[in-house]
């Protein structure tokens, strides 16, 4: 049988993913060490790539080796220097475009845009970042406190409900009030379960103290007594 030759898949122009790090360059006017930045282009493919670096404002930057090649499954560093640091450029966003193509072809297989920004001070940026983080933490703390405050009334309501002992005591008092009074002859309840008026008054007092029915139950006890 004839062996099938491996064919490289057709590469569509502009659709090849480009892997570069970082995707944003930040230069600080008061920190000369940041005036030189490095872009790393990765080639994870089985074929070599050639690249070209373009910029919207080439007069502000110097790109070392703006064109070159990267071998399969290798990477290459591209050095970019900011050479025109001035206050009028603070906060202005420039763009670099990194185009890659196959070595044997001219058409661009893929491209990636990198944003470059010049800021006045690294310390100010750090302070702003810390202040922003502080505001976020304070906001989260307030949110948690607000949620806890909302939950507290519900918890208090749940905890302020009658305990099992109180409920049991109430049931005993109600049962005591429902039992016949001493002296009642026409009752099917055994004699030892007949309670005196004083015992019923005590039960009514206890029930009223816990449940707010004292007057009503005392009145009922008096009626039973008569």
UniProtKB/TrEMBL annotation:
Residues in a coiled coil are none
Q: What membrane topology does the UniProt entry give?
A: Multi-pass membrane protein
Subcellular location(s) per record:
Endoplasmic reticulum membrane; Golgi apparatus membrane
Q: Which InterPro entries match?
A: Ig-like_fold, MOSPD1/3, MSP_dom, PapD-like_sf
Keywords of this entry: Endoplasmic reticulum, Golgi apparatus, Membrane, Transmembrane, Transmembrane helix
Which chain regions cross the lipid bilayer? 164-182, 202-224
Q: What's in the GO CC field? A: endoplasmic reticulum membrane; Golgi membrane
Q: Which gene encodes it?
A: Mospd1
Where does this protein come from, organism-wise?
Pygoscelis papua (Gentoo penguin)
Q: What does this protein do?
A: Plays a role in differentiation and/or proliferation of mesenchymal stem cells. Proposed to be involved in epithelial-to-mesenchymal transition (EMT). However, another study suggests that it is not required for EMT or stem cell self-renewal and acts during later stages of differentiation.
Q: Where is the MSP domain?
A: 17-141
- Name-wise, this protein is Motile sperm domain-containing protein 1
Q: Which PROSITE patterns match?
A: MSP
The domain of life is: Eukaryota
Q: What Pfam families does the entry give?
A: Motile_Sperm (PF00635)
């Amino acid at each position: 049988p004839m062996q099938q030759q491996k064919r490289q898949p057709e590469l569509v122009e502009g659709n090849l993913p480009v892997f570069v790090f970082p995707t944003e360059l930040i230069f600080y006017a008061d920190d000369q060490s940041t005036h030189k930045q490095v872009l790393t282009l990765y080639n994870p493919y089985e074929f070599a790539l050639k690249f070209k670096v373009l910029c919207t404002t080439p007069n502000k930057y110097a790109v070392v080796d703006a064109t070159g090649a990267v071998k399969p499954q290798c990477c290459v560093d591209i050095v970019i220097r900011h050479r025109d640091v001035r206050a009028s450029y603070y906060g202005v966003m420039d763009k670099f475009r990194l185009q890659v193509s196959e070595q044997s072809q001219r058409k661009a297989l893929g491209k990636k845009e990198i944003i470059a920004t010049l800021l006045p001070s690294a310390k100010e940026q750090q302070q702003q970042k810390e202040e922003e983080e502080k505001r976020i933490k304070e906001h989260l703390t307030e949110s948690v406190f607000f949620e806890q405050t909302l939950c507290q009334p519900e918890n208090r309501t749940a905890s302020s409900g009658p305990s099992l002992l109180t409920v049991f005591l109430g049931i005993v008092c109600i049962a005591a009030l429902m039992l016949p009074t001493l002296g009642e002859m026409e009752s099917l309840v055994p004699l030892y379960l007949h309670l005196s008026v004083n015992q019923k008054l005590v039960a009514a007092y206890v029930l009223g103290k816990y449940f707010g029915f004292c007057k009503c139950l005392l009145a009922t006890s008096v009626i039973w007594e008569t």
